[in-house]
# Entry
Amino acid sequence: MTERTIFNFNGKVALIEWFDVHRRLLPWRDHSNPYAIWLSEVILQQTRVEQGLPYWERFMSKYPSVEKLADAPFDEIMALWAGLGYYSRARNLHAAAKAVVALGGFPSTRDGLLDLPGVGPYTAAAISSMAFQEVVPALDGNALRVYTRYFAVAERIDQKRTLRHIEALCTPLLDSSRPGDSNQAIMDLGSRICTPTRPQCGECPLQHGCEAHRRGTMESFPVKPAKKPPQAETWTLYVPQSFGKFGLVRRPEKGIWSGLWCFPSTLPDEYVSIPGIRTQHLLSHRVLTLEFHEILENQPRSEDAWTWFTLEEVKNLGLPVPIRWWFEEKNYI
Ligand code: SF4
# Structure
């Protein structure tokens, strides 16, 4: 018999009652609209709520429906996305919007949603539970921290079998009539109370059933693989400019800043460049040092290996953060 049954503690009820009082007020929680929920989930992957909220509002205002988003030019979406990073998400956002329109609406199950570009198990479960009341746990980093502590799961969370084990353990904690609210309660708990360090167990509605709390080993969970140190890389970028225009190339479909407009990293033989300013930029597993070299004495020519843009046009392009930084640092935009 476990501690949870000895005290007859009902974590499911405690969780939903706590959520009704302490829920974080977020605009997509006023919707059962799968589009609004999906958009929030895609924007909030790898992004804090404070940073993602204005983006969600801008997207909802410019594209109030999935049809409008599907019809939008890709460059316009990239420009609106700029600054959020992980640009493959914007590409998937557009592709998924088109897929939803082709299907005639959002799939209503986790398995159906998983077929959409860029929708992984967590996002699919979040949407299906919030918009369609499917009783499936949404396991993001916050939820995994809460659940691994609550159940004292000692296996590494990067293993698929551990995730299956956690899913089996935590599904009974979801309120079957309000699974979306149960999932959001866990997310709120993980972001505000069951924090990575020094969790506030005294304020936690789950404390009477929490095994890690009982043992006093909260910070031992979740069990993660050892972290690799970030790799340092230096990139040289060449800045073609002539008669108020700037030369940019579109980044490849895969890899860093996919689909965004960037200065070229190679220079045809006939051009001469001089070193200019440099900056550092942190990516998830890399520290990039960017050295900007300026090309001053060239003319716009049709055979150039880049596309010329006026500053007005540059303002509306999807640019990586350090490229936008360069234009701002030079007082061009
Ligand atoms: S009791 Fe503490 S460790 Fe357990 S879920 Fe709550 S905040 Fe996390």
Q: What stands out?
A: The beta strands are 231-242, 245-250, 261-262, 273-282, 286-295, 307-310. The chain has 15 helices and six strands. Residues 156 and 225 are 7 Å apart (CA to CA).
